[in-house]
Design brief:
By secondary structure, the protein is of the alpha/beta class. It is about 35% helix and about 15% strand. The chain has nine helices and eight strands. Strands 1, 2, 3, 4, 5, 6, 7 and 8 form an eight-stranded mixed β-sheet that branches. Helix 3 links the parallel strand 4 and strand 5. The longest helix has 14 residues.
């Protein structure tokens, strides 16, 4: 399986990351990627940039660097068990790509039924595109119920390379991948890179997918034509600025 777009990456605008947009794009090009999403943490996070960072993405950055298409987005934190995210709706609507993730500084571990309620709420937010790194140990939920809901509301489930490496999520991801295959839930495979050298690196995530024979046609970012058709259908012609 080949991944052609890395749709969850961080820059120095998130203060626990270490590379610039230019550096990330260069490594994306070297990795043979067709697209890269810039998705720094939102201002309510302790290391998130000022909201002006997001306002200026469309103005300051080109839509292509080193032959790699750029998407302008954010990783928004889920801040309560109703599934509320920390970025205002008008800010989300102005960007291309919104990832909704649980982060420990916002939400403590709790019973699976509360995490299930949280994800069911997130699923209904029309501005959320991706359910980010949802295999975190200690934040398990009713995968069966929520994955069906994600499919119903058109949310992509992220298979997150960094969380597999650093947070021991492989077993939870095996179950999530199994059920996504069973229910034909579309997914994206992302690096969640916090350093340019990790952009375009997906070895462990791909291994888990291939271990279960996950169909490539359900991986939105595993084929260039499939990916750009998906983006065009969901977002319009964002790379040309035409609706």
């Amino acid at each position: 399986m080949k991944i052609i777009a890395d749709l969850h990456t961080h820059t120095v605008a998130s203060t626990h990351a270490y590379s610039t947009v230019l550096e990330n794009a260069r490594y994306a090009a070297d990795a043979g990627l067709s697209a890269l999403a810039v998705t720094d943490h939102t201002p309510a996070s302790t290391d998130g940039p000022h909201v002006w960072h997001f306002h200026n993405l469309h103005k300051a950055l080109p839509r292509e660097l080193f032959g790699v298409k750029l998407m302008f987005g954010a990783e928004s934190s889920i801040i309560d068990y109703d599934g509320t995210i920390d970025f205002p709706a008008e800010e989300c609507a102005a960007l291309d790509w919104i990832i909704a993730s649980i982060h420990r500084n916002h939400l403590k571990k709790t019973a699976p039924d509360e995490i299930t309620r949280l994800y069911l709420g997130v699923a209904e937010n029309p501005l959320v595109d991706v359910i980010g790194h949802c295999a975190t140990v200690g934040y398990e939920f009713d995968y069966d119920k929520c994955l069906k809901k994600f499919k119903e509301y058109g949310k992509l489930v992220e298979i997150n390379e960094s969380s597999i490496i650093w947070k021991n999520t492989s077993d939870n991801y095996r179950e999530i991948i199994r059920l996504c295959k069973k229910y034909e839930v579309p997914v994206v495979v992302n690096s969640d890179a916090h350093f340019c050298g990790l952009v375009g690196k997906f070895d462990r995530a791909i291994a888990l997918m291939e271990e279960q024979g996950f169909p490539e046609e359900l991986v939105v970012n595993s084929d260039t034509d499939r990916f750009f058709k998906f983006i065009s259908a969901q977002k319009g012609n964002i790379f040309t600025g035409k609706a």
